Amino acid sequence: MPQTATPNSVSAGPASDVKTFVTAVLLTFAVGELTLLGYALLGVFGGIIGLVGGIFGIVWWRSVHDKKVFPRDLPAKSLIVLTVATALITLLAFLLVA
Q1: pLDDT for position 48
Q2: Residue 5: what pLDDT?
Q3: Is residue 25 part of a domain?
Q4: Please, what is the average pLDDT of the chain?
Q5: Of 5, 7, 46, 91, which is the most exposed, with the fewest CB atoms less than 10 Å away?
Q6: Which UniProt keywords apply (predicted)?
Q7: How many alpha carbons lie under 13 Å from residue 41 in its C-beta half-sphere?
Q8: In whole angstroms, what is the distance from residue 18 CA to residue 94 CA?
């Protein structure tokens, strides 16, 4: 039998779970794109710089959200900003690589 959510549950509901999944995908993709962008601009050294920049971005993201990379109740504004930033990084990478 499925268990019902308790007040101390990790999940805040299906919508929260979807936002957390999308955030995980976007953060991973953005770090990969920054690495690709650095590699396209400066070669291997640029790839390393892009990877370090992505790691610092995740650390910054964590500091903004109460020391959690994936907070229980992620604000929609944060997800929108992350989506726009990832889209801009992807567009820039496509323009430089193409």
Answers
A1: 95
A2: 58
A3: yes
A4: 88
A5: 7
A6: Membrane, Transmembrane, Transmembrane helix
A7: 15
A8: 27
Residue 1 lies in a domain: no
Tell me the CA distances in angstroms from 61 to 39, 56, 69, 86, 95, one per residue in order: 23, 9, 6, 13, 26
pLDDT of residue 15: 83
Q: What is the mean pLDDT of the segment spanning 51-75? A: 91
| CA 93/CA 3 separation, integer angstroms | 45
CA distance 30 to 85: 8
The residue type of 3 is: Q
CA distance 57 to 32: 12
Task: Flag whether 90 is in a domain.
Answer: yes
**For residue 8, what pLDDT band results from cuts at 50, 70 and 90?**
low
Write down the pTM of the prediction. Answer: 0.83
Measured at the CA of 27, the angle between CA 47 and CA 25, to 5 degrees, comes to 120
> To 5 degrees, how large is the angle CA 60–CA 84–CA 13?
75
Tell me which residue has tokens 């930033």: 85
Domain count, the chain: 1
